Amino acid sequence: MASKPTIRIGVLLIDTVELLDLSPIDLFGMLSEPYVSTLSFLPAPLKAGAVPMEILYINQAGPNTLQECTANVGLRVDASISDKICAPAKKGGEKTLDILLIPGPDPSAYKPTDALNGFIEGHFDNGTDVLSVCTGIYPTGCAGVLKGKRVTGPRPLLPELQKKFPEAIWETKRWVSDGNLWSSGAFTNGQDMVAAYIREKWPGPTAEAMMALADVGERSQEYGVATVLRLSNIKDVASTCLLLPPGK
């Protein structure tokens, strides 16, 4: 059997990062081979669905720095936006990131730079899937990639966002996807978005098992709508996928 390609995910850290905005990255981590392999209760067919992944934490300063986060947390940084491992490839080159996750900075303090704009736009133009969480839509919008795209953002900020980025098509939803651009509403809506993304990119019992384990991905895309699905535990998922007999 041919080996699976490794998915490289970049997390762009800007200013003081909101931990809840950052939290969806752990859903990717839960689907990775190192994590899935530790789950002794998971049947072998589900473990076989794990995805090889590499996660890079990226900021403007680069390695050997700590990125400030809310709740007095400091995050180790792996690379700067200019490092070869994650800088956007030149036109015609092979993309360096498969996914770029952008947790939100404080929009009142955010100051776009040509370097940040070029980093985001370059990856978007190269076909990298850009996933904006909460106020991550501000740097995403400043990079000039929203034109004609269906997007969303935190509900209280939508009127301001509509004025700031009138070129986008704004929707009031927990998350919206349009081509290789995904965006979410506030905070934990980013978890809803990444759960939907995982189900689209890697559909199947392993993804469903990890979503059930994390107890995410059941809220509707529409605000105010009841949950879409509830499976009480991992064994229910396995039973549903005919990998375990019911009740075992």
UniProtKB/TrEMBL annotation:
Residues 69-198 form the DJ-1/PfpI domain. Pfam families: DJ-1_PfpI. It comes from the Eukaryota. SUPFAM superfamilies: Class I glutamine amidotransferase-like. This is DJ-1/PfpI domain-containing protein. It comes from Letharia lupina.
